[in-house]
Amino acid sequence: MNTMTLWHITPWEFAALAAAALLVGFSKTAVSGANTVSLAIFAAVLPARASTGVLLPILIVGDVLAVLTYRRHAHWPTLWRLFPAVAAGVVFGTLFLVWADDGIVRTSIGAILLLMAAVTVWRRRTADGTGEPEAVATRTGRIKARSYGVLGGFTTMVANAGGPVMSLYLLSAGFRKLGFLGTSAFFFLIVNVSKVPFSVGLGLIDGHSLLLDAALAVFVVPGALIGKWAVNRINQRLFEQLVIAATVVGGAQLLLR
Question: CA-to-CA distance for 187 and 83, rounded, in angstroms?
């Protein structure tokens, strides 16, 4: 892989990547889905295919910080129901990356995200937001968990865009703010770590990309701290609105890129 290194990017480009890394930290501890903006920045500065391999370790650093922050709030029954479907989605996404055209992949994912955002807004208007998360409460919820799991695994593998998919699922399943963040923290840590061998096999991660990651990882920490401070000042309604807005922005930028 012809990955750009620290010696091949300008100071302004590095500053843009550093800002994107900071946003990753913020999204992991505050507004999940906001890191779709980071995805766009990485793809703009680095070669599009290489950018996914550079971004993955940055996301894992953010996932670790999120787990340390919200580990007590994870809903494990939901996670266990999601993982088999997500694994299938990751495998499908890996096979898709072998031959798929980048433009078709981005357009498809962008359209799916916008459609799901619209569906989620409609569903939230009819949900009461109480009781156990739907993912483990009903047969319909279990079917939905599997469907979102496959789609989440696929999108996270092909474009590191699984965040908006799973954000919409957790919102539609009735998760409150801390349960949302705790469950998504463990989910993405496990899923992103499992993607590493696939990314290495595809040539998306190598020594050069890891060197750039080492320089950018330090910026994830202040972003996570800002997110931890901010989340306590965001009410549930605003939190949901921000997550959906981030999803719409992410879907739109994938369509327009």
Answer: 8
Residue 226, number of CB atoms within 10 A of its CB? 16
Residues in the chain: 257
Q: Which two tokens stand for residue 21?
A: 């890394």
CB 23 within 8 A of CB 227: no
Q: Could you tell me which of 13, 15, 21, 44 has the C-alpha nearest to residue 257?
A: 44
> Counting beta carbons within 10 angstroms of the beta carbon of residue 227, is it exposed (0 to 12), middle (13 to 18) or buried (19 or more)?
buried
Q: What would the pLDDT profile of 89-146 be if each residue is shown by its tens digit?
A: 888 888 887 777 667 766 776 777 677 677 667 766 655 554 455 545 566 666 777 8
Alpha-carbon dihedral angle through residues 104, 159, 115, 151, given to the nearest 10 degrees:
100
* CB-based contact 30:222 (threshold 8 Å): no
State the Cα angle at 117 between 67 and 19, rounded to 5°.
50
Cα gap 112→170, rounded to integer Å: 16
Nearest to 153 by CA among 143, 144, 162, 163: 162
Cα separation, 37 vs 247, in Å, equals 10
The model's pTM is: 0.78
- φ and ψ at 195, to 5 degrees? -80, -20
Q: How many helices (H) and strands (E) does the chain have?
A: 12, 0
The pair of structure tokens assigned to 70 is 């919200």
Q: How far apart are the first and last CA of the chain?
A: 22
In the block, which residue shows the tokens 């989620």? 120
